[in-house]
Design brief:
Low-confidence stretches: 12-27, 48-64
Mean pLDDT: 86
Strand order of the largest sheet: 3-4-5-6-10-11-8-7
Strand content: 25-35%
Distance between the termini: 74 Å
Helix content: 25-40%
Order of helices and strands: HEEHEEEEHEEHEEE
Number of helices: 4
Structural class: alpha+beta
Number of strands: 11
Shape: globular
Length: 249
Amino acid sequence: MIRSFARGVLIGTACICLLALGWLFLFRPSLAQYEASELKEAFTESDPGGNSGVLSLPWFNAENEKQLDLASLQAQYPDVQAWLSIPGTRVDYPVLQSSMGNPEYYLRRNYKGEWRTAGSLFLQSDCRLSGKTLIVYAHNMNDGSMFGCLPRYLGSGYCSKHSQIQLQTPDGTWQYTVVAALETDVSQVPFNRTLFSDDADFLAFAQSLLDGAAMKTGVPITADSHLLVMVTCSYSWPDARYVIVAVKS
């Protein structure tokens, strides 16, 4: 009888451990995706006529679409700077930004500041939406959420189907087209630069991204270009990153 009791305790403990692991590795990561969807739904408004222009992009059917009320969202959550979407992928999230004193605050937090395994998409702390480069970070999640799709951009076939990116900002919705994908680190390619002395400096920076790319689409970068740089972890070597570069249309 004692053995049966001990066996029951062991089985019960094992079940609790399995449930805890399931919560940690399966449900917890997907929670961020669910919360982003709920947040977007809470701050959308109908646009039956599709006349606002906010979603008048090639991959949207404007009729009966809903558009994000970013102003109301920012009023409640001031750290939300934009909303980033890549049609055909799971990327459809708010982009947060914290202070330069705590630049990775949202690495493991959601838009409310609550701890989350998957964290949030977050803008590099010294970036400004008016700047030449916007650098956005997120985790490379095994379930494909957050920036889990970025490694696939190193294949041209995937990129050709997911080359268009939408960033909704307080100044309107901006469209970007993917230019290049690379696996690198900041010691090889300084992908995290935000300030440039002149046009020549910016073009030299852009060329360094292209020179290190494993995949290039041929979309040109000029002195007038504005870049979106999306970054997530690679595990090929210490501090390695997958970097996807897109140019504003």
